[in-house]
Structures are given as structure tokens and as C-alpha cells.
Hints:
CATH topology: Alpha-D-Glucose-1,6-Bisphosphate, Chain A, domain 4
Number of domains: 1
Helix content: 25-40%
Order of helices and strands: EEHHEEEEEEHH
Largest sheet: 8 strands, antiparallel
Oligomer: single chain
CATH architecture: 2-Layer Sandwich
Structural class: alpha+beta
Number of strands: 8
Amino acid sequence: MSKTIVSKDFQEKSILVSREFNAPLETVWKAFTESESLEKWWAPKPWRAETKTMHFSESGYWLYAMVSPENEKHWGKMNFLKIDPMVSYAIEDEFCDEDGNTNTELPISLGKNTFTKTETGTSVEFKTTYNSEEEIHKLIEMGFEQGITMTFEELATLLEDVKI
């Protein structure tokens, strides 16, 4: 069984999250690029993701909320910068309000998700870069490492149970 690896490079001001999923490339790509699939796993339980708008296209974006069991919402937006179907996509990832206005007090990252077919499934590498080492520390304090590990674990379970 594969596990999620989170590597921080403070000199490069980046975080690399990698994991191999036991599912075909097409299925894993869909899990990362369709709102119906993302809503099933893109939040650490007991939170859930809720899409307000999604246009998976270059210059498009995904505006979503992380919703708590008490219905508290924290908004995020992924701006899709470049898409190479079934290979990778580049994003600008930011915290925002429900209308998509950027929260400039929280880190904004540039990221790239890369998908590679393997003998047993699909490898995903999600690399994000930040403006400063302080922004990485802020993200870590906010629980990024635990959250992304939990969400990737949830995706792995859904893929194994063929629920995506």
C-alpha cells in the first residue's frame, strides 16, 4: 500500500506531495479535474468540499468551500493556468471569499499536478511554490500536511472501492 509523502524544501520555497494510487490514469485524472469527484475527497474528514463554480480549462478556475460539520465555510480558488490533458496541470492556488476575491493575508501558491502511469496504477506529484519560507511555515501551522495526507488517503480509499 502506497502512502502520501510530503517533502518541504525551504530553500526552494516549495512543498512536494506525492502518492501512487492503485487506479488507471484516466480515473485519477478525473478525480482531480471534475468537481463531482473532487467533492468526494478534497477535504479532511469530517469536513467536505462544496463547489460553487468549476471551469476546468486554461484561464478557468475552481471556486469551492471547505465545509465543517457545523456548516462553517473556508473558501479557496484554484486558477487553472496550463493544462496538458492526462499529463499535468498548473494552478495558482489561493484563499478567498465566497465571491472569489483573494485573501491577501494568507499564502498564494503556484503549483503543478503531474500524473504518471505506473505498473500498478498512477503516480501523482503535486508541487507548490511560495513567495517566502514564512508562507510555508504559515501553511504548516494551518495543518496543510495533515490535511493533504488525509485527503489523499480518502481518495485512495474511494479509488480502491471504485467510488470514483
